[in-house]
Amino acid sequence: MGTWIVNGMVVEADNKQVMKHILVDDGKITAITSDDRQSLDTDGHEIIDAAGKLVSSGLIDMHVHLREPGFEYKETIATGTRSAARGGFTTIACMPNTRPILGTPETIQLVLDKAETEGNGVRVLPYGSITVNELGRELTDFIAMKQAGAIGFTDDGVGVQNAQMMKNAMSLAKSLDMPIIAHCEDESLVVGAPVAEGSFATKHGLKGIPNESEAIHVGRDVLLAEATGVHYHVCHVSTEQSVRLIRQGKAVGVHVTGEVCPHHLILSEEDIPEMDANWKMNPPLRSAKDVEAMIQAVEDGTIDIIVTDHAPHSEEEKAKGMQAAPFGIVGLETAFPLMYTKFVATGRWTLAFLLDKMTVKPAEVFGLPWGKLAEGQEADLTIIDLETEKAVQPDEFLSKGRNTPFTGWKLKGWPAMTMVGGKVVWSE
Ligand SMILES: NC(=O)N[C@@H](CC(=O)O)C(=O)O
Ligand SMILES: [Zn+2]
């Protein structure tokens, strides 16, 4: 018995919006048709009425912190995947900065096993660490982790400080046809600052994180990617200078790709209202000029994909204040509504353009078999209500994390149902 998702609105690549009925059978999309609803053979099928809503290929988020193993008080694979499903995400890639760090085949396997049993049907793709315990001293066993199911290597949370270490990692990754995903941060240029250089830091007498601390790694790594031929992917790009370096790399044929988070496209350091650690994340909110550079980089394709960098922390940790609290904000349950409200509802982007950055492109960049709404594809689908306006209410999050700067924001574009491989994994 299959499922008919009827009367939904589908967006085609040219942004044409058409009403379609979608048949899901045995986990796959077997028909997408605009035939008359009455003429459909729905006998013995389940019917999901998507009238007035968008039906999209499931959202894909390539940068998520699930916190398990080790930090289950912040998030677990169970709560993180529930949060993902509520946010419309059908596939998420999780970062290795857990305890222990995901730097061995056993820990990769542990995450995959837990995701299988407790992952609420959401596809979870683990990254392995580049260096042992993300300490930057010794490479992990890439071959064994690849065999165990790691999809790429990253020391996210910290930058790889040593250039030779990064070059060795890239050479090894290249030989295995695996990507290097980099958190770009030169520690000698950061020195304990909680926010970016700028008006907020000055006003509150705080040290500021300079743009170069990110961009210097991007520049170094683009050169190393050129030398090694690896696929080099830059995490959470936030500065004008990084964008310039990625653009130059792409122009000369380096295999470099980049991601940006909603908060770096929407907020600048000038928006931080007070000394509230819900506005503290790494990279930090930068200047308005950087924000505009990020938007343009998405528009001209320099930045390939949008990710959340979902980074849950406990209320106690965030209550320690701007200086002492850990970096990071949650993102899974607000990403699509934020992007839709700020960029599509305002007319700056088409819906097709936004969906491309959150479905097709992430799959393309990482060579994943999902992301497309087409017959024969796995039935990973998200139904989204584009009309109803609702305020962001952290106490409704399915994530354990409540750490968001977007509390109370009135947004449209809320997911209503998420389906993975033909199975409904969340519905409002
Ligand atoms: N982004 C953050 O502010 N924090 C992340 C680490 C990271 O992605 O760099 C975390 O693990 O909390
Ligand atoms: Zn990071």
From TrEMBL:
CDD domains: DHOase_IIa (cd01317). It comes from Paenibacillus albiflavus. Pathway: Pyrimidine metabolism; UMP biosynthesis via de novo pathway; (S)-dihydroorotate from bicarbonate: step 3/3. It catalyses: (S)-dihydroorotate + H2O = N-carbamoyl-L-aspartate + H(+). Zn(2+) 1 binds at residues 63, 65, 156, 309. The keyword Membrane does not apply. GO terms for molecular function: allantoinase activity; dihydroorotase activity; zinc ion binding. Keywords: Hydrolase, Metal-binding, Pyrimidine biosynthesis, Zinc. GO terms for cellular component: cytoplasm. Catalyzes the reversible cyclization of carbamoyl aspartate to dihydroorotate. The lineage of its organism: Bacteria, Bacillati, Bacillota, Bacilli, Bacillales. This is Dihydroorotase. Belongs to the metallo-dependent hydrolases superfamily. DHOase family. Class I DHOase subfamily.
